[in-house]
Amino acid sequence: MSQSGYPRAGFRRRFGSWGYDVLVAIAVYMCAGAISFGIFGALFSAGIIDNQGFSHPIDLQQNSLLWSILVYLWNLAWVSFFFIYFWARSGQTIGMRAWRLRVQNRDGSLISKTTGIKRIVFTLLGLGNLLVIFDRRNKLSLQDRFTDTEVVVLPTVK
């Protein structure tokens, strides 16, 4: 039980929420990718980006380590922004709302954006939640431990 009076979420509930959020994260990643490719293509067509002998921007992007890294970092930044924004704003992503979960500081307050960034780093693409399986008493994941936060189950609204 947390200090806020709500029980901490176990692995199954976290995993269910993670499943929903993965689908949303994929959609965010795809939208960010479409935008980045549009910008990249426009800069390529305008001659601002050297075509390096390629006739199509996707060929340049796929054959250039620098451009590939920049595009993928852009996409991952938007996915990270999705999680950090919702965690700091309401403590819930779309998947967490469906599973009645909330991430919060141990005192029950909303987490900051800085704490959200730390959670993103320590979550290891969701693998940090596996620690909950082995910590049945405290139900704290790797990211919970490193950021002094918790994920709680909210009561059913009638």
Automatic annotation (TrEMBL):
The protein's name: RDD family protein
InterPro entries the record matches: Pra-immunoreactive (IPR051791), RDD (IPR010432)
Subcellular location: Cell membrane
GO cellular component, one term: plasma membrane
All residue ranges annotated as the RDD domain in the record: 9-146
Species lineage: Bacteria, Pseudomonadati, Pseudomonadota, Gammaproteobacteria, Alteromonadales
TM helices/strands, residue ranges: 20-49, 69-88
Keyword annotations of the record: Cell membrane, Membrane, Transmembrane, Transmembrane helix
Membrane topology listed for this record: Multi-pass membrane protein
Top-level taxon in the UniProt lineage: Bacteria
Pfam families: RDD (PF06271)
